[in-house]
Each structure stands twice: as structure tokens, then as C-alpha cells.
Amino acid sequence: MIGTRTRTDSRTDPIAATLKNLWQTLQSRNAKVPIHGGISTPAATPQSLKGALTQARYALTAASSRRAPGTEAPTSNLTAIEDLTTLDALLTGIPADVRTAFGIHALGPLADDTNPSHRMLLETLDVFLTHNGSWARTAEALHLHVNTVHYRIQRVEMLTGRDLARLDHKLDLKAALLCR
């Protein structure tokens, strides 16, 4: 289901509100078959309908890629484009094969998580990025000496060709970790 909408009153959005209210009823009709929906931002003019349709399709892709917690089973979802407010949520709208390819290419040799040393480096990278690049908090979280964290991050930089002092490189690697 794809929904685009036009806005006549800037304070209310009756179509989105109605869809969200009806979603439970739609799901209950056949709980074994997941249904997905995507809602765009309002299209104010006929010229903006194409953009709204693109947004609704992206939100639909995000809704259909979400899985039930702890399983790989798809779950019914209704996603509005304005619900995609985090990097993780934004990435859900990207097809799985594209996410996988991005993760492999951005992480380089680290993408081979069958290698125990690469798994350790990926864990260190994830904790380092989660702690906003703080050497001390990363070391504390991993129960390591700060110098060990420095060494591991240098190895990550060497293997990926990224400089973790640069924000754009941090974002690339964070997105790659989320895409795995």
C-alpha cells in the first residue's frame, strides 16, 4: 500500500491519522499475511506528486524491511516518511542487497567477520563510534587499556582506508556497521 497525500489544513493530516487508526483493523483481517504501508509528506501541488510518490515508496520499502523482534519474519508496518528520523531508520528503506554491498565495500577486509581478529576490530569500532570517539569511554566499556583501543582503531583505519578523526568517515563506517 502506498499513500501520498495533499494537505489542505497545515494543522491536521486526516489521511495519515485515518490510516494509522485503521492499521490495526487491516492487520487483524489476516494476521498471517503481513501488510506494509508507506506515507509521504503532503503534496501541496500537482508538480510535487512525483516526489511524494517517491517518498511513499521509500517509506513502504522501510516498512516492509522491518522484521519481528528476534526473528527474520516480516511484520506488518505502516511507516510515514517523517518517522525515518535516525540513520538506522533511514537505511531500512534501502534494499537489503544494496545495504549489504555498501557494508562490504565500506568495511573492506573487516567485512569478513569469520576472522576472529576482524570481529574484535569491528566490536571495537562499534563501541568507539557508540561512545562518540572517546578513547577513555571505549576502553572502559571494553575493559581495555586506552593504548589498546588506540592500536585497534589504527588497525581499523589501516584496513578500511578511513580516518576516524573525520566525521564523514565516522558516518560512513557507522552506516556500514548498521548495514551488516
Largest sheet: 3 strands, parallel
Count of DSSP strands:
3
Mean pLDDT score, rounded? Answer: 86
Give the low-confidence spans: 5-12
Major sheet strand order: 1-2-3
Order of helices and strands: EHEHEHHHHHH
General shape: elongated
What Rg is obtained from the alpha carbons, in whole angstroms? 21 Å
Percent range for helical residues?
Answer: 55-70%
Span of the ends, CA to CA: 27 Å
Helix count equals 8
Structural class: mainly alpha
The fraction of residues assigned to DSSP E strands is 5-15%
Description:
The protein has 8 helices and 3 strands, in the order E-H-E-H-E-H-H-H-H-H-H. The protein is 56% helix and 8% strand. Helix 1 (14-29) links the parallel strand 1 (2-5) and strand 2. It is elongated and about 55 Å long. Mean pLDDT is 86; it is low at 5-12. It has 180 residues and is mainly α. A 3-stranded parallel sheet has the order 1-2-3.
Layout of secondary structure:
Layout: E1 2-5, H1 14-29, E2 36-42, H2 49-65, E3 77-80, H3 87-91, H4 96-107, H5 116-130, H6 135-142, H7 146-160, H8 167-179
Parallel strand pairs: 1-2, 2-3
Helix pairs in contact: 4-8, 5-6, 5-7, 5-8, 6-7
